[in-house]
Amino acid sequence: MATTSQPLRGKTTCKKIFWAVFPHACFILSLVIYAFLGALMFSHIEGTREVTVSEEYRTFLQNLTYLTRNFSDNVTENEKFNEDIRELFNTADPVWFINPEERWSFFGSLFFCCTVFTTVGYGNTYPVTRSGKYLCMLYALFGIPLMFLVLTDMGDILATVLSKSYNEFRKLQSKILASKLCSGSTCSKRNELKSRAQSKIVINEPLTIMEVLRSQSGVKAVKYRNVELFEMLIARENENTQPTRNKSMERWSSCPELAREKTVSRVIKNFDKIGKELEKLDVPIVLMVLVIFVYISCAAAILPNWEKNMDFQEAFYFCFITLTTIGFGDTKLEHPKFFLFFSLYIIIGMEIVFIAFKLGQDRLIVLYKKVISFCAEKKMPSKKIYPK
Fold this sequence. Notes:
By secondary structure, this protein is mainly alpha-helical.
């Protein structure tokens, strides 16, 4: 029996782990599939578009050829030429100098989809065709809520890890301080007091009905006239103290669908608990700022390895603008393919920034409450006590 029960226990634990991880994996997998489908869609629409020469492009070429023909070696005219050529290139559309097949490859389209549903939007890649613009709006309409759902779900995991680690750190800190402040004699006295208090707590545990009846055997029988009532209470207590697992195991062994229904209900409850751990998180905002600084610094040290046009400061600025979903687009990536493998870093970093913003929001609400209550107390008229 022991050999058969051990594999069954292993299977049940594996099932429990699977159903516990299933909601989180479902959200992440759906976001990945959504990104890949969007990459295929935009690479097909924008990558295969026909490049037509517009009237603006023709006038741009005409003005450019006119300026180059009138160029001379004179210094004053050369300065004027620089100003004219700068103004001319400011009117140029970047789409004229882009090959759609290279820009809208699968990895380029995947990078564009990530910038859409993360609301970063650098601005260097955008749809040109009318159908691509309409599909971009529709894609963002469903992709942004899905991204925020993934952020909230993963935020619960990070909030649990942060709160537990912070609480363990506080406990360790309190133990270290207590060991430093506590001497040998005082510690022994405190331990004796704790042991006495624990022994008192054990003695003062609530008694059962049977123990009360045995202890009150010398009391007059007038107080216990209703013997049937006590017998019913004892029978009910015995039913409550019996383990209910046997009944459930008997039902599950006779009807396995009940156990399956119970696991499914637990998974549905896990979906309902999304965002609860994030609401309970209470750690110092300074700690979150420090975590963000260390997290961005690690990426800023790695990113210049494949982006040669960036140094540490430029990469730090780029990561901050990306994780806060500002996305000016002033810093461009030469190799977006490598940055796509950095997408997990972006999602986790957005989680950390999202948690920091949530903590800052809570602190601001508390501050506003204190200010409003303080102003209300100042405006309230003082109560005058009149003599009777």
